[in-house]
Write a structure and sequence with these properties.
four-stranded mixed beta sheet, 24% strand, D-Maltodextrin-Binding Protein, domain 2, five-stranded mixed beta sheet, Arc Repressor Mutant, subunit A, alpha/beta
């Protein structure tokens, strides 16, 4: 079989066009002329004997089915090519280059500082960027190659994503310091059946609460819903209800000086899995593989001495 005639430059130009779905966007990202991108992609299609992109006059580009499949395979190939060049440049040295990771917004304050410090201590020449976002956005960022790995919860992960569980986070009950159960170390959820509940209303919260209800038979009386983690804690501190949370701050004070108490749940309740997600079939760079390894060693470990 003859070696392929296409070049690495053609592949990179096509990848940029596929990512931006625009020749203009690709040319700006690559800092080359639009004609250079168009010519390279057209020659690549000729060399392969297939159409990869559909050109829409003044309306950008669309990937064909073959183009979509080729792009998915190509991302791993380009990552490997970058890895190979890096290995040649830095043989015997530490990792270098850039790495972008995604992180679920509520996990960031708890996990990112320690994770980045541990990674930087071992690989100071890697420039790590972080994007915090909610679940659906992180999945799209992985698909669009805007990040290589994402630290998130392990629910609703589609078949095109691989993941590694790095920690299981059990839920706990949060009550105000003046609550009748505040002096207890653990409670049964049924003891709170008559209490109002303040719920952290994030995507997929309903699904997780349903799993707790199915397991325990507990049916809470929800009074307040909010998307703010600290808002939940402040509402609880002021007696507006109890909450069930997973992330546990190191202190018991709220932003406004209120005080809360975390209680273990006596019932058998399902934990939330924290995972590192990556695109299936895409070869990770050495930088990203090391980040996955670091997550497995670092994420969640500080919790083992808390609740």
């Amino acid at each position: 079989m003859a070696d392929p005639a296409f070049t690495l430059t053609q592949l990179r130009y096509f990848a940029a066009a596929a990512e931006h779905l625009s020749m203009t966007g690709a040319s700006k990202a690559l800092m080359v002329s639009q004609s250079a991108v168009s010519t390279a992609v057209a020659q690549l299609e000729k060399d392969l004997g297939i159409q990869l992109l559909i050109r829409h006059h003044a309306r950008g580009l669309t990937l064909t089915a073959a183009g979509q499949s080729f792009y998915q395979e190509l991302r791993g190939f380009l990552a490997h090519a970058s890895d190979l060049a890096e290995a040649a440049r830095t043989a015997g040295d530490d990792l270098t280059g850039e790495l972008t990771i995604g992180c679920f917004s509520t996990l960031g304050p708890f996990e990112l500082p320690r994770l980045l410090a541990a990674y930087n201590a071992q690989h100071p020449r890697v420039d790590v960027s972080v994007v915090e976002a909610e679940h659906a956005t992180l999945k799209n960022m992985l698909r669009q190659a805007r990040c290589e790995v994402a630290l998130m919860y392990g629910y609703d992960l589609d078949e095109d994503l691989d993941h590694v569980v790095v920690y299981e986070v059990p839920p706990y009950v949060l009550v105000g310091a003046e609550h009748r159960l505040a002096r207890r170390r653990q409670v049964s959820l049924q003891e709170l059946a008559d209490d109002p509940m303040v719920i952290l209303d994030l995507p997929h919260t309903a699904g997780y609460m349903s799993s707790i209800m199915e397991t325990t038979g507990f049916a809470p009386r929800i009074r307040h819903q909010t998307t703010g983690f600290e808002t939940v804690r402040s509402m609880v501190a002021h007696g507006h209800g109890f909450a069930i949370l997973n992330q546990l701050p190191a202190h018991d004070l709220t932003y406004d000086g209120g005080k809360v108490v975390a209680l273990r749940i006596r019932d058998e309740v399902p934990p939330l899995s924290m995972v590192v997600a990556t695109m299936r079939g895409v070869r990770l760079t050495a930088r990203a593989r090391e980040m996955v390894r670091m997550c497995r060693r670092t994420v969640g470990r500080w919790r083992e001495d808390s609740v």
